[in-house]
What does this fold into?
Amino acid sequence: MKKIITIIYLFFFILITSYGNSKTNPPFKNILVNENPINYEDIFFEDFNGKIVNLKNEQSRIFILNFWATWCLPCKEEMPYLDELQKINGIKIFPINVEENNKAKAEIFFKNLDIKNLSIYFDLDNKLVNLFYLRGLPTSIILNKDRKEVARILGAVDFSDQKFIDWINSVSN
It folds into this structure.
């Protein structure tokens, strides 16, 4: 009888721990998860009209700051996926162009990709590039509702992949 109870206990232990790990393990190898979310005091950038956006004034359960450039082919590949992801309630995406403030090129980039759900933002004097120590494009910083970095994505991913959507929803809880 003790053997059966031990086996049942072991079965439930494995089931519970594997379920818990599935929520925290990212679905792609290029997602780096922070065990301890990183706090940033001030996250400022510029919208398309030149207005300063302070992330402290924004509300969402998950924020994604996606850094991109018009010349970046992986950025071009993933932007439509980000556009679709923006439709999910509770996720706010800020695609931030890191090139010199060239509105015309950024607008053409979005128009050619038929981006409808996202707005264009710009990094002020590469302050965010330096703040987040960015080393390549695209890079996406995932922040929780408290605006703490819980993960970052180095390179392109398919943001429409259901595994990613399930994972992003689990890290927001």
